[in-house]
Design a protein that fits this description.
This protein is of the alpha/beta class. The protein contains 17 helices and 15 strands. The chain has a four-stranded parallel β-sheet, with helices on both faces. Strands 5-6-7-8 form a four-stranded antiparallel β-sheet. Strand 3, helix 1 and strand 4 form a beta-alpha-beta unit. Helix 1 crosses helix 10. The radius of gyration is 27 Å and the shape is elongated.
Length: 489
């Protein structure tokens, strides 16, 4: 490793040296979607956040096993231990099988992830496919005295666990405060303590999704699923566990307790949490009427949107803020991201035609170092983007003849953009020039016709071609090597 990677570990609430990962293998588990509704901007942020972490670790030659689960059972209403399973409820309302609902929304989610150019995880397990592993984990928790059964349901004893372990260490919550601020709710009286959480729930007669177990026909608790699947695919201890800030408590806190009780040790070295996306300063939610799906963004068909926004615009918008920072959506912010992305992509088109000189007026090696430093500083994508725009300035300045660059530095600059903008940030050029070969071929014909008109001194036709193209935001620039075209920003 030539580069020292530093990350922010939620558990310690400070940046720490990434030295514990001293082998070429990295295990990363990320809480994926609960598939009972259309994907929205909040789904995009963790997917993109952990996609660039996955990409960068691979870029640094780590062998990464990236596990991202799909929750298709056990996620009850209001994220509580009572109520109806969200997928079962939608299946009942739509008169479909629960797995039809899960499959439909899984397919929609994967389509959105492909549009956003997120790499597929190494493994994508479903909670419903790992019931046996979850039952075995519950048995172990009961054996060590930290799980108890009540009328076919099994709960984790948080009070007993806290006598020897710190429950709340991830979120900074104090158990005494949780107890004093938690009231007994109807239907939860079978718990010994209000902070206890379900490991297994006995299914009510109307509950569709159920499996046999030593305790009852029922289904696993939501928190247990991730502990069982991460252990199966990454072992009892692994490097990174990620997810949204909204999962920090109680979901991830409960995961720590379960895994510690079952395995006798904490499983995760580094906890990483991306922050929330707000809309005009408000939390996004259907009840607030500000819920926008990714499909809405791509089509523009939502009253809150002034236009459609491409998947790469959404990706670039999300990358412009550090993953731990709150990100506020507005049409103005997305339109600014759209313009910035176009500038970046136009520069990458321009670099192909740059001419080298004997000397360089800019230090490209230093710029490359700054790009690495940004990613090594807790995957700081906005700082990386700022350095890439310094590269854009250099490209445009060389293209305009105001600066010079050697052949060696030009090669390094091309590699820098290919490595950091394409391979690591995962950006794709969606512009007219790069969708396929046809636009280039058409423009070649048009420019040849214009050149023929100029050769024949038919300047009226030559100027008309130039002006008509400008009307559709295509700019023609005459150079000593011939005319070139670009899309106007």
């Amino acid at each position: 490793m030539d580069h020292q990677l530093v990350v922010y570990n939620t558990l310690s609430r400070k940046k720490e040296n990434f030295e514990p990962i001293n082998s070429p293998f990295v295990g990363m588990y990320v809480c994926g979607p609960t598939v009972y509704g259309d994907g929205h901007l909040g789904h995009a942020r963790p997917a993109i956040t952990f996609d660039i972490i996955f990409r960068y670790l691979q870029f640094l030659d780590y062998k990464v096993r990236y596990v991202r689960n799909i929750t298709d059972v056990g996620h009850l209403e209001n994220d509580a231990d009572e109520g109806e399973d969200k997928i079962s409820k939608k299946a009942r309302l739509d008169q479909l099988e629960p797995m039809e609902i899960a499959q439909y929304y899984s397919d929609r989610y994967h389509e959105n992830m492909d549009q956003l150019n997120c790499l597929k995880p190494s493994i994508e397990p479903r909670a419903s496919g790992h019931i046996i592993e979850q039952i075995e984990m519950i048995k172990k928790i009961i054996e060590v005295g930290l799980g108890y059964e009540v009328d076919g349901s099994v709960y984790f004893d948080v009070i007993k666990y806290s006598k020897t372990h710190e429950y709340g260490k991830l979120s900074g919550r104090v158990l005494e405060d949780l107890l004093s601020n938690t009231r007994d709710l109807d239907g939860q009286s079978e718990k010994r303590n209000p902070t206890d959480f379900a490991l297994w729930k006995k299914a009510q007669p109307e509950h569709i999704m159920r499996w046999p177990s030593p305790w009852s026909d029922g289904f696993p608790g939501w928190h247990l699923e991730c502990s069982a699947m991460s252990t199966k695919y990454l072992g009892e201890q692994f490097d990174i566990h990620g997810g949204g800030m909204d999962l920090l408590f109680p979901h991830h806190e409960c995961e720590i307790a379960q895994s510690t009780a079952c395995n006798g040790k904490e499983s995760v070295k580094y906890w990483l949490h991306n922050n929330m996306i707000t809309i005009n300063g408000q939390k996004m939610g259907k009840s607030l009427g500000n819920f926008i799906t990714l499909s809405d963004f791509f089509s523009g068909e939502n009253k809150l949107l002034e236009q459609a926004y491409s998947p790469m615009t959404i990706r670039f918008f999300i990358l412009q803020a550090h993953y731990r920072s709150t990100l506020d959506f507005s049409n103005e912010a997305l339109q600014s991201a759209e313009k910035g992305l176009k500038r970046l992509m136009t520069a990458m088109d321009t670099i192909v035609n740059l001419k080298s000189s004997e000397t360089s007026t800019s230090n490209i090696k230093e710029l490359e170092k700054k790009c690495y430093d940004a990613m090594n500083d807790d995957f700081n994508s906005p700082i990386l983007i700022a350095h890439l725009f310094e590269g854009v300035r250099i490209i445009n300045s060389v293209n305009d003849g105001k600066e010079s660059i050697t052949a060696e530095d030009l090669t390094l600059l091309k590699k820098l953009f290919n490595d950091f903008a394409i391979s690591i940030l995962g950006l794709k050029n969606e512009s007219l020039k790069n969708n396929n070969d046809l636009p280039d071929k058409l423009m070649e014909v048009i420019l040849n016709l214009r050149q023929t008109a100029k050769t024949n001194k038919d300047y009226a036709t030559s100027d008309k071609i130039r002006d008509e193209l400008k009307n559709i935001n295509i700019v023609i620039k005459d150079t000593k090597d011939g005319a070139v075209w670009s899309e106007e920003n």
